[in-house]
Design goal:
75 residues, flat, 4 helices, 40% helix, mainly alpha
Length: 75
């Protein structure tokens, strides 16, 4: 049986590093911790109205159709 090499920092790979960074006083997230709703809200405010008007009216119902090309669901 092959032994696994151990890293000195206690992390088995990079997947756990991001989770740890968020809990250490906002490292990598800026000085203040914003809620995800604040971040999404700010991002949506930056989208021009003409771009919102281009979205299909049935996007939420047929998201799989628009992303993957599946059949549209009936209205």
């Amino acid at each position: 049986m092959r032994k696994r090499k151990r890293r000195g920092d206690g992390l088995s790979d990079g997947r756990h590093a991001a989770a740890g960074a968020a809990t250490k006083g906002g490292v990598g997230l800026g000085n203040s911790l914003e809620s995800i709703l604040d971040i999404v809200s700010e991002a949506t405010r930056q989208v021009p109205e003409r771009d919102w008007a281009r979205l299909p009216t049935d996007l939420s119902k047929n998201v799989d159709h628009y992303l993957y090309g599946t059949r549209k669901k009936e209205k």
